[in-house]
Amino acid sequence: MSFSRRIVLPLIVALAVVGLGALVSGCGSSSEPTHVEEGEVLQLGPLKYQVTFSRYLNPNDNEDVAYLVGQEEAQKESAYFGVWFEVQNETEQIQKLPTEMVVTDEEGNEYKALPSESIFAFPMGGTIEPEEQVPVLDSAAQQGPIQSSLVIFELTDEASSNRPLTLHLESPEGDKGEVQLDL
User: Fold this and answer.
1) pTM value?
2) Which residue, 15, 36, 149, 178, is the most exposed by fewest CB within 10 angstroms?
3) Would you say the C-alpha torsion 121, 154, 55, 48 has a positive or negative sign?
4) Tens of pLDDT, residues 131-141
């Protein structure tokens, strides 16, 4: 083997190993994903959000009546849609929760979260204590059938045809994330 070949070949191999190492190590050092699927954890600022379940709500169903307390009848060609959450605060400080949430469909139509009087409601704009979760342990929401806090949206009938539906979250610190809902 010639002198140049003995130097060039190991040099190429060494550069390839270094490049591969940088690529692999870069994968682990990137920030948390800002777009996740329903059921996956979304880290926004200091809080971890997990959409545990989403579905249309039926005002004629005994379980759903408790979720829809205080809601008027849905508008014509619309239906209520529920998104259930768990949020973890693993820090030593009280943290603020989002004041609003929005669902969009494939067409870009926006549906804002509605205020709710239900005991299962997510505490929009509230706070979460250090080392705690929402829903709070032993609360109706945590002990309920889905064991999560609920956010209600009123979607048009066409929204279910314009899938996927995406939930948009923004932390009080301005961190943004999305959850693709499993409808």
Assistant:
1) 0.82
2) 15
3) negative
4) 999 999 999 99
